[in-house]
């Protein structure tokens, strides 16, 4: 071997070891799994296990509210630190973790831009469409899809004396949220509920994609490989007939209709984005983001909450009683209750909050980066460039916030007399809403998601409807 090459190699090796050693020592004051201080092995294993949430939960339980899970990566369940990193004037930025959320082969989107100036501008432009203020059809669109899903269940999944017709709640809730988001995003439903199927294999592909995204997110080198032109050609394309590519094609067509001579003008989300100056290219990639950000998360929360409510006879009948009484006193609009009416139902609200707490749908790291000058966390110095991921599972199981029985689904904890004081309940409300992120990076679709949850949980549990479901159980 050329001696110069050998020397150069050795010098590089020494520099690399020194760099790693410095990183190792820099975060040395934070506890964590042994291998995590010098490798991403622990993290890779945690993600690969499919039970990342549980591993994360245990790490902070064992090593404190902020622990180390990688050479330059911390994991926190401290609500105060999360608010600080996400606050409007905070110098923290999105860490490299966010690169993995670039779904479009060549374009970044609102969730993947790491430059805060670009992200913030886009966020301001899009906030109007998401808030519902510039989207006249929001509630109406949700109602229509809800009627459709209830109709589907009635016509296809009600068992009779002679026939047992089980329904896969997981699939149907996903179909529902996909049709809702496509309707409110561009005035056209994907039609999952019409066919009651996954016609272009979107869900099938998602089962492969989502775990892959999780893995990419913690291995930046894999991200780089994914950006090679050869690999990019394998990425979803708008001309695909299946999966995400099909959705991209759908987005391209719908966006196309809003431009040109015979353009369609509609006062919906897409219309609002156009009013606020998004370009055609931006619209195409943002529409895909909307679909992916807004469907699986909301579906998870609806199905888990329904599952938890119906798994406990006492909780189920308490909710039924609340709804029956409101219904008998004519406090609920039929066929679908108004969003404002759902707020007058305290037990329903308690069930929704408790569902978000027990099963926060977004458990990925969403890592933010410490600003160049570094920061002091719990009295310990953290160098600039360190990533800090959030542990939503751990946050929602903080005993000092939610009480001792954090692992139990108990809506009563949100109500007076349920063991928590008024001040504690106020604090719980603030902490549980962290499930939607916070501040500069907080979920733009939160009003949409909450409206879907409020209406769906109520309608599916309403007496007239539940009678049918109960019959099915027997
Ligand atoms: C229960 C349902 C939902 C949950 C728990 C949830 C949670 C979250 C979380 C944790 C974030 C990221 C915060 C961060 O990066 O720090 C986020 C971002 C986002 N969500 Fe949601 N989400 C839900 C439903 C929706 C829906 C229905 C939509 C669309 C209508 C949506 C659109 C978005 C968008 C656009 C962002 C990016 C905001 C930004 O980058 O500034 N989400 N969401
Ligand atoms: C739906 O429920 C949430 C949480 O329980 C509540 O805060 C909210 O006001 C309700 N309505 C909407 C539109 O979010
Ligand atoms: C059912 O729910 C009630 C009320 O929240 C709770 O007290 C009880 O422990 C739950 N039962 C089970 C088996 O979890």
Automatic annotation (TrEMBL):
InterPro entries the record matches = Cyt_P450, Cyt_P450_E_grp-IV, Cyt_P450_sf, Cytochrome_P450_monoxygenase
- Record field: transmembrane: none
Which Gene3D superfamilies did the record assign?
Cytochrome P450 (1.10.630.10)
The residues forming the signal peptide are 1-23
Q: Which Gene Ontology molecular function entries are recorded, alphabetically? A: heme binding; iron ion binding; monooxygenase activity; oxidoreductase activity, acting on paired donors, with incorporation or reduction of molecular oxygen
Tell whether tRNA-binding is among the UniProt keywords. Answer: no
| Family note | Belongs to the cytochrome P450 family.
What is the name of this protein?
Putative P450 monooxygenase
**Organism expressing this protein natively:** Lophium mytilinum
């Amino acid at each position: 071997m050329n001696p110069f090459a050998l020397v150069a190699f050795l010098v590089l090796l020494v520099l690399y070891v020194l760099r790693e050693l410095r990183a190792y020592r820099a975060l040395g004051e934070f506890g964590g799994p042994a291998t995590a201080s010098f490798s991403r092995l622990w993290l890779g294993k945690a993600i690969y296990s499919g039970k990342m949430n549980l591993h994360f939960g245990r790490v902070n339980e064992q090593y404190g509210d902020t622990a180390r899970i990688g050479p330059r990566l911390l994991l926190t369940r401290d609500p105060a630190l999360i608010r600080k990193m996400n606050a409007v004037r905070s110098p923290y930025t999105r860490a490299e973790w966010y690169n993995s959320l670039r779904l479009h082969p060549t374009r970044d989107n609102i969730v993947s831009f790491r430059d805060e100036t670009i992200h913030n501008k886009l966020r301001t432009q899009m906030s109007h469409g998401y808030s519902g203020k510039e989207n006249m059809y929001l509630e109406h669109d949700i109602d229509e899809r809800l009627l459709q899903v209830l109709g589907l269940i009635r016509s296809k999944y009600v068992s009779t004396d002679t026939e047992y017709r089980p329904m896969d709640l997981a699939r149907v809730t996903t179909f529902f949220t996909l049709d809702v988001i496509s309707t409110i995003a561009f005035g056209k439903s994907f039609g999952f509920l019409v066919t009651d199927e996954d016609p272009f294999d979107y869900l099938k592909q998602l089962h492969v994609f989502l775990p892959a995204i999780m893995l990419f997110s913690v291995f930046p080198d894999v991200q780089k490989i994914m950006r090679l032109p050869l690999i990019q050609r394998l990425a979803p394309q708008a001309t695909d007939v299946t999966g995400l590519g099909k959705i991209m094609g759908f987005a391209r067509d719908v966006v196309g209709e809003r431009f040109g001579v015979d353009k369609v003008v509609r006062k919906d989300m897409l219309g609002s984005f156009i009013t606020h100056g998004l370009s055609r290219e931006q619209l195409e990639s943002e529409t895909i983001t909307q679909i992916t950000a807004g469907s699986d998360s909301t579906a998870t929360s609806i199905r888990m909450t329904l599952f938890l409510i119906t798994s406990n006879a006492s909780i189920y009948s308490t909710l039924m009683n609340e709804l029956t009484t409101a219904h008998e006193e004519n406090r609920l609009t039929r066929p679908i209750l108004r969003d404002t009416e759902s707020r007058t139902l305290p037990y329903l609200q308690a069930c929704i909050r408790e569902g978000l707490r027990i099963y926060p749908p977004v458990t990925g790291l969403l890592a933010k980066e410490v600003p160049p000058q570094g920061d002091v966390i719990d009295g310990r110095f953290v160098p600039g460039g360190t990533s800090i991921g959030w542990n939503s599972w751990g946050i929602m199981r903080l005993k000092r916030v939610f009480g001792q029985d954090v692992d139990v689904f108990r809506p009563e904890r949100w109500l007076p007399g349920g063991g928590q004081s008024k001040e504690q309940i106020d604090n719980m409300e603030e902490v549980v809403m962290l499930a939607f992120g916070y501040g500069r990076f907080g979920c733009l679709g939160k009003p949409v998601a909450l409206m879907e949850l409020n209406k769906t949980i109520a309608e599916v549990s309403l007496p007239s409807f539940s009678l049918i479901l109960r019959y099915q159980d027997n």
